């Protein structure tokens, strides 16, 4: 890797991109698809020539900004080509072509060089057959059972449903191309709309109630682009806010900091549908925000449709990035920043060149989850009645009169999975290209905290505090709504009308309590199943080191985090409709025959498996293998060692993982309202909350808000047990 001597600067790369873009603009009117393919090939070939001549590609790979820009450029060019966008956006793609080409060539060159170097360092070559015999000798029957059963469950109930969804995505009308459904998604104006009509505006000024109101709705670019743009906007904004709040709370000491930290965590308490409903009230033309702008500027404001969805998701998801970033900032080695300061880096330069890059893995983990959650979120689109998003389209296919999910929806589900996986893999690869090692990692150090001056205190109390309070308002509003302090329509605070009537009715009304009973029983059964699977997988991964098998099992056990819940729901619909046709497990068998509870329990256990596996795996890592070997040498069987020696040691980890899994199962939305909606009397609480909001039940929004309060209490209880009783850190989503 050291024999590559850079002789050309990056200016040659930028110049090549500029030339390509100018050529495209000049010859665009005369270009045919074949001629344009030649231009793309020429751009890649010329980039290869620059690479051979010694362009400094490592400046791209090891630059925080340039390497991230490569990822964004790759995604940009992909959609430019898939959506067949021409004009200046395509010219920009040509300008970016040398950048991603040279970065990709350099990445693979270094990978190949490192693989060759690693191969040279291996002095003893072991044949594949010898490795197999060694693995068979070391692994006893009980471990083979764990590996085979764990693998089988993951393949049958995770991979197979997703592959079935992909199979149905290629079902096309007679005489059509096998890619018909995908071509329709990428070319139909329902999904991709590149032009903006004169009557379409990001916001409109209307007269409502005799006063001017600015109605912010966003611009419709089609279902596919709307979902992608919304996810990018939500992820970018949530990441910025999360980093800002985390850095201030981690690095600066000021009065009330602990209160700030508690308030910043409030949005993490999940109250599906109701929190988005409260946001809609807050930003309605009669809401407090509109009344404030009316008093200050003489006009009101209402945020709705696409803009409302983005706002609700930002407020709900930014704490995911905040907690990841906060954990990263407080675990940074102070000596790294101190050395940078000694070399002259201060302020913003120190933050961008040292602090932020070192904290990047944690921040990126939160950002990727926000991107995925934004794509699959159903609460905000349903509340804001925004059907021009992929998640709403997939959901509506389950509620159609026919009850049949079309191949086009299956293709849309695969596109959602592809977008989520591409974001996940691209960011993970970006993080993997860089080194984050710290000199004294794992030792004790004093955190770098500074006291804020006057300007800093003004920023914290005049900007940060209102921001944190603002993002906590939905959960506070849920409590006010549940106890009738805030009415379900309009905005007012009526303390004299406070009543626990709606909350008490959750347990007195049998029609409402049915959903609570379903939720608790499903969550308990799913947690028991997930815990059993997690023990087998976590033990196999931590105790066996079989190339390919062990890493694959580990990946399959954690990959549900990167698979949108709606994709799981679609896959399970096809899975049970295919292999259990005509049985009570067939989703198309009708609302009186279909046994949704079985499907829901299995779906929950697979979807939330990563949370349980991670906790159990951490427990196995705490028990040294020497303890097992000693027990085996004294005559104990493997089963006696596992169940009589190890599991008692890690019982707290198992219980903690089960509690965390129970909470996330209780608040699950995507599978609950799709699969559960096919058999309403067997649906969980989240389905009832959605129906209450939509007004299709005899009880009102206050009941849904009361269910939200009950879910908050569940989550508070879980935090208390995990943190106070078991002395472990509660694992919020992605943290």
UniProtKB/TrEMBL annotation:
The keyword Transport applies. The chain crosses the membrane at residues 12-31, 37-55, 62-85, 91-108, 142-170, 228-250, 262-283, 306-329, 350-373, 409-431, 452-485, 520-541, 553-576, 596-620, 641-665, 699-726. GO terms for biological process: transmembrane transport. Keywords: Cell inner membrane, Cell membrane, Membrane, Transmembrane, Transmembrane helix, Transport. Coiled coil: none annotated. Its main location: membrane. Pfam families: BPD_transp_1 (PF00528). It comes from the Archaea. GO terms for cellular component: plasma membrane. It is a multi-pass membrane protein. It is found in: Cell inner membrane; Cell membrane. Residues 224-427, 516-722 form the ABC transmembrane type-1 domain. The keyword Transport applies. PROSITE patterns: ABC_TM1. Belongs to the binding-protein-dependent transport system permease family. This is Binding-protein-dependent transport systems inner membrane component. It comes from Staphylothermus hellenicus (strain DSM 12710 / JCM 10830 / BK20S6-10-b1 / P8). The lineage of its organism: Archaea, Thermoproteota, Thermoprotei, Desulfurococcales, Desulfurococcaceae.
